[in-house]
Amino acid sequence: TLAGHTGSYFTQKMSKGGLKRSLLCMGNPLLDVSAVVPMEFLEKYGVTLNNAILAEEAHMPIYDDLVKSFNVEYIAGGATQNSARVAQWMLQVSGAVSYMGCVGKDKFAEDMEKCSLKDGLHVQYMVDEATPTGVCAVLVNGGERSLVTKLEAANNYKIEHLKKPENYALVEDARFYYMAGFFITVSPDSIMEVAKHSAEKGKCFMMNLSAPFIMQVPPFLEALMNTMPYIDVLFGNESEAVTFAESQGWETRDVAEIALKISALPKASGHRGRMVVFTQGADPTIVCKDGKAVQYPVIKLAKEDLVDTNGAGDAFVGGFLSQLIAGKETGECCRAGNFAANHIIQRSGCSFDDTPAGFSWA
């Protein structure tokens, strides 16, 4: 039994081994190449602060330039993998969380797998021997971050990998599924396969809006809206919420109102209503379900304690999921999400202590 874990639901699940393989995450595994940079560096490559983009031709020199010009750190990354690692860290039950995505056959992939295994995360990567593992330039300025992603192998995930019996067993065993919106750019058919399975079996399918460009590029928006009826829990931040409203031609820019409108969009299954969770940086998190929007305050942090915001949203989701899959109420999910996000922003990248000391289970 785990110290700090109380309550009959958790004990019952533990005794049945019920948390093992209960959450499956799928996404784009990336190696983060992170450095603190001046504004001139962002301007040089036409990158705006606090944004996430896919690298275009003009951005290709950024990776070598970053390594040559600054003191860089290499950290296992990719939005979904970050959330999966944090959920696993919060749960402290080895193998509770599984993760799939595509990597190359190289040292970056080996390092990421070692990092995941150390965290207790169960990974089943698809390996593309012809393409290097994807990288993400994390540009940190004044504690804020901008991401420039070169997907490489991550872009080559195929549904055939998902359908292999040893991998599909993870789909069948899981009761919860989480994918960042970024995966829409890679394998929308894999997303729909899992989403439909979840709806048919009365499970819980979750996604994240992830970045404004997902809603600004017509084929990505179409894939998101095709998936929307199957989404039981949708995450995002305030800028993504507003971009979503714009994409739908809604006049409102009020984040709580947008959350209410999204929660009311049609669903494919009636076994649960849709919950919408929007973080707002230092402002309260908005959670909307059953036609009501509730605000949950975040943990205040002095500016001098902020190291960087890279992975903050991912960490919030990871903390939230750790409680959700253990049957906790929404308030507890947000409390754990805020704890994890607060921990991560005081460190470089999505990294953490060996255990979530300071978090007590209700």
What Rg is obtained from the alpha carbons, in whole angstroms? Answer: 19 Å
Which structural class should the secondary elements be placed in? alpha/beta
Helix proportion: 25-40%
The share of residues in extended strands comes to: 15-25%
How many helices? The count is 14
The largest sheet, given as strand count, sense and whether it forms a barrel, is: 9 strands, mixed
* Spatial separation of the terminal alpha carbons: 15 Å
Could you tell me the mean pLDDT? 90
- Can you write the helix and strand succession as a string? HEEHEHEHEEHEEEEHHEHEHHEHHEEEHH
| Shape call | globular
Q: Looking across the biggest beta sheet, what order are the strands in?
A: 7-5-1-11-12-13-14-15-16
Number of strands: 16
Low-confidence stretches: 1-16
What do you see in this structure?
With 362 residues, the chain is α/β, with parallel strands linked by helices. It is built from 14 helices and 16 strands. The strands form three sheets. Strands 7-5-1-11-12-13-14-15-16 form a nine-stranded mixed beta sheet, with helices on both faces. Helix 4 (79-91) crosses helix 13 and helix 13 (312-324) packs antiparallel against helix 14 (330-344). The radius of gyration is 19 Å and the shape is globular. The model is unreliable at 1-16 (pLDDT under 50).
Task: Name the descriptors.
single chain; 362 residues; alpha/beta; 9-stranded mixed beta sheet; globular; disordered N terminus
What secondary-structure arrangement, pairings included, does this model have?
Blueprint: H1 8-15, E1 23-26, E2 30-36, H2 39-44, E3 52-54, H3 62-69, E4 73-77, H4 79-91, E5 97-100, E6 102-104, H5 107-119, E7 122-123, E8 126-128, E9 134-141, E10 144-150, H6 159-163, H7 165-173, E11 176-180, H8 188-201, E12 204-208, H9 212-216, H10 218-227, E13 233-237, H11 238-247, H12 255-263, E14 275-280, E15 283-289, E16 292-296, H13 312-324, H14 330-344
Parallel strand pairs: 1-5, 1-11, 2-9, 3-10, 5-7, 6-8, 11-12, 12-13, 13-14
Antiparallel strand pairs: 2-4, 9-10, 14-15, 15-16
